[in-house]
Write a structure and sequence with these properties.
Helix content: 55-70%
Number of helices: 11
CATH superfamily of one domain: Tetracycline Repressor, domain 2
Strand content: under 5%
CATH architecture of one domain: Orthogonal Bundle
Shape: globular
Structural class: mainly alpha
Largest sheet: none
């Protein structure tokens, strides 16, 4: 760089009210701002942001700010906002399957249903952004996402087969249970229960009604771990 060019640079920095950065300082600063940036870290931070602000408020700019990088840096790890939503849905499906599996393994009938419902509600309350991301049926053309959705569905099927249901009845029962639980946790999330009666007691009664409707007294089959 010529002496004249150096003087122009210094004058520009002085007008901006800050000292001119040393050569290479910006690249070093950016490198320090994103140590260990990986796709998994980007998705984890995006999922946390979705949990805090809501899935609809998720943006690449918000994720980049949270990670201390610029938006173009994210494209080295994810394919854009749509890809980020997909990855959050995938992570949510895997997390929810693990949570429900741990809660229900070895249980049967009403015991399994109550454990499943409690774990479902707890996950929705703790991770509202991730929970919202898993509600849409996955695109069957996306093999990875479809497989993750199938694992979650099979786990719920295993819980409900403890009521002695056949395959078709199990599908209908799964839809009914999912609708009931999702409706409850969604209303709870937006403050939809304004009356003074205990909300936990209302949830327990909802699960009791589901248990009664599914037919208590049928053969109970313990839930086993699903690979």
């Amino acid at each position: 760089m010529s002496e004249r060019e150096g003087s122009q640079r210094e004058r520009g920095a002085t007008r901006a009210g800050r000292p001119a950065p040393a050569p290479g300082a910006l690249s070093e600063e950016r490198a320090q701002a994103r140590p260990g940036l990986t796709p998994d870290r980007v998705v984890a931070e995006a999922a946390a942001l979705a949990d805090e602000r809501g899935a609809a408020a998720l943006s690449l700019a918000g994720v980049a700010e949270r990670l201390g990088v610029r938006v173009p840096s994210l494209y080295k790890h994810v394919g854009g906002l749509d890809d980020l939503h997909r990855r959050i849905a995938l992570a949510g499906l895997r997390d929810l399957t693990e949570v429900l599996g741990a809660a229900t393994v070895g249980r049967s009938g009403g015991d399994a249903l109550r454990a499943c419902a409690a774990a479902w509600r707890a996950y929705a309350r703790a991770h509202p952004g991730r929970y919202a991301a898993v509600q849409r049926a996955p695109d069957r053309a996306d093999a990875e996402l479809a497989a993750a959705g199938d694992r979650l569905t099979r786990l719920v099927f295993a819980v409900l087969r403890g009521y002695g249901l056949d395959d078709e009845e199990t599908v209908h029962a799964t839809r009914a249970v999912r609708s009931a639980l999702h409706g409850f946790v969604s209303l709870e999330a937006v403050g939809g229960f304004g009356l003074p009666q205990d909300v936990d007691a209302s949830f327990d009664r909802l699960v009791d009604l589901l248990h009664a409707g599914l037919g208590s007294g049928r053969a109970d089959v313990p839930v086993h771990h699903l690979s």
